[in-house]
Write a structure and sequence with these properties.
Helix 6 crosses helix 17 (473-504). The protein is α+β, with helices and mostly antiparallel strands and 516 residues long. A hairpin with a 2-residue loop joins strand 1 and strand 2 (54-55). It contains 18 helices and 17 strands. The termini are close together.
Length: 516
């Protein structure tokens, strides 16, 4: 069971238990109303429920009333959806949205200012000198910031899942049979819709127009060698077997020859036997390394041994092995030299992993964080220089000489449109404090003090102030309320779920019950 499936399972159990605890029920009438009024996309796009390629609700309603059609799958789906919706509403029942809150949100978003902002950005300085002594001093002073949790490493081999000779022959026999159908005169587009395993299958295999260099070489060579309406012999590429039909040739606006073709793709994929075979090989490798060297057994199998990067117990990902929570658990429950049972990856491949390294709490070596520390000290120095520059300019700035000072000192200035606290300002970023200060000043021609931002200092001159049009508040009040509700409801629900999950004290025992 992979991590995504595990998280979905945990969430479902937590929510289902909450539904039971809060005694939440859904009536058949509610389910029926949902089925009738909110058909899912799989229904609205189903060809049998369409007229002139548009969803025909009458056809759908007739099918709902047909006793020979089993709709329990859809009613069960909507019953669960409605339960979760009611749970969400129950959790958010105590969230109160007042008119004052809605008005304040409106005012915050609609109070706007237009300004000329001088930007004293650290990035404007190419480089500053940072000595090794400064780095060492910073490292010693902030050593606790570089403490690492206990870590482990694996050495591992990968057993790829590949098609067996029988799988390859099955695919080749299938494409040959389809090729016979095609050259005997059967409709190529219908054959593609019925047999093709590529994404263009539903479109009759139509690939549209393409020039040379857009397809893999084997496909391109075969396609451009055809004449219009000619059908190729079966062609093998990295994607599988293809039969190609040329539909048209033309010269595009760039003077390049391009063609339009359809194709039928049959993939060469591992079958059940191949999956069983690789599982057997993986189990045999695992058993052999219990009594012999991991490296020697890998060499005997012709497999490359690789090493992961160190990982902590709370890691979500292991380099080379992916999101392998069960292997992480194994690494911290066992000792160096122990080999985890075969672990099946998302693509059907198997990994055999041996714990090769362990270390307790420790500190990152200074060499590993030297660049990080250098950047922090350099940023601090650059910001100090930019602050001094801004503070030297600020006292002489007036509304009248603002443009002249900028020009004389070759300063970077950003001329904004109307912006609010929530705006992202091009070449400045999201600087709430800066916008708040500008809004506080209001008066055109006013100039702010030097204001520190994330990676720059700013001085701004107010060009124009725009107070919120409260006459429009009543018009937008309901839409504004919905925005505030959605924001607060999502925040409250997410906090409730996180707290409920924490209180549940979920234990991940997958490695005890599932084969890794």
């Amino acid at each position: 069971m992979n991590d995504q499936t595990w998280e979905q399972l945990v969430q479902r159990i937590i929510l289902d238990k909450a539904i039971e605890r809060f005694d939440i029920h859904v009536s058949p009438k509610e389910v029926a109303a949902k089925m009738i009024n909110e058909p899912p996309e799989m229904i609205t796009t189903y060809e049998a429920f369409q007229t002139d390629e548009q969803f025909d609700k009458n056809k759908y309603l007739q099918a709902l009333q047909n006793p020979q059609v089993d709709w329990t799958w859809l009613s069960g789906y909507y019953e669960q959806i409605l339960q979760y919706e009611k749970l969400r509403n129950f959790v958010n029942a105590d969230v109160i949205i007042t008119d004052q809150m809605v008005m304040e949100d409106f005012i915050k978003k609609e109070t706007k200012v237009k300004a000329d902002i001088i930007v004293f950005a650290a990035a404007q300085i190419d480089s500053v000198y940072v000595s090794d002594e400064e780095i060492a001093k910073y490292y010693d002073k902030n050593l606790e910031n570089y403490q690492e949790k206990p870590q482990r490493k694996f050495r591992y081999v990968t057993l790829p899942l590949v098609p067996s000779p029988e799988d390859r022959k099955t695919a080749e026999d299938k494409i040959n049979k389809i090729h016979e159908f095609a050259i005997s005169g059967e409709d190529f587009a219908e054959l593609a819709r019925e047999y093709s395993e590529g994404p263009s299958g539903p479109e009759g295999g139509d690939l549209g127009y393409f020039t040379k260099g857009k397809m893999v070489k084997e496909f391109e060579d075969a396609a451009f060698a055809l004449k219009i309406n000619e059908i190729s012999e079966p062609i093998k590429t990295q994607f599988g077997w293809h039969v190609i039909k040329a539909l048209d040739f033309r010269t595009n606006e760039n003077g390049e020859e391009e063609m339009r073709a359809s194709h039928i793709l049959i993939k060469v994929e591992p079958g059940a036997d191949a999956r069983r075979d690789i599982e057997t090989v993986a189990q045999g490798f695992y058993e052999n390394v219990q009594a012999d060297s991991f490296t020697i057994i890998a060499e005997d199998h012709g497999l490359e041994v690789k090493d992961t990067e160190p990982f902590a117990e709370d890691a979500r990902y292991i380099q080379g092995l992916g999101r392998a929570q069960m292997l992480i658990d194994f690494a911290f429950e066992n000792k160096v030299g122990d080999v985890a049972p075969p672990y099946r990856g998302d693509k059907g491949e198997y990994f055999i992993a041996q714990i090769s390294y362990e270390i307790g709490k420790h500190y990152k070596p200074i060499e590993d964080v030297k660049k990080e520390i250098y950047d922090k000290i350099a940023m601090r120095k650059k910001m100090k220089l930019k602050k001094e520059e801004a503070e030297a300019i600020a006292p002489i700035l007036t509304a009248e000489n603002f443009t002249e000072i900028i020009k004389d000192n070759d300063l970077k200035v950003v001329n904004t449109d109307f912006i609010s606290e929530t705006s992202f300002i091009p070449d400045v970023g999201r600087e709430v404090k800066l916008v708040q200060k500008m809004i506080e000043l209001k008066t055109p021609g006013s100039i702010t003090d030097v204001i520190r931002g994330n990676k720059a200092y700013f001085i701004a001159k107010i060009v124009e102030f725009q107070a919120p049009d409260m006459a429009k508040f009543e018009e937008k009040k309901e839409a504004q309320r919905i925005q505030v509700e959605n924001q607060l409801f999502n925040q409250n629900y997410n906090q409730w779920y996180a707290k409920t999950k924490e209180d549940a004290k979920v234990k991940d025992w997958r490695s005890k019950f599932f084969r890794l």
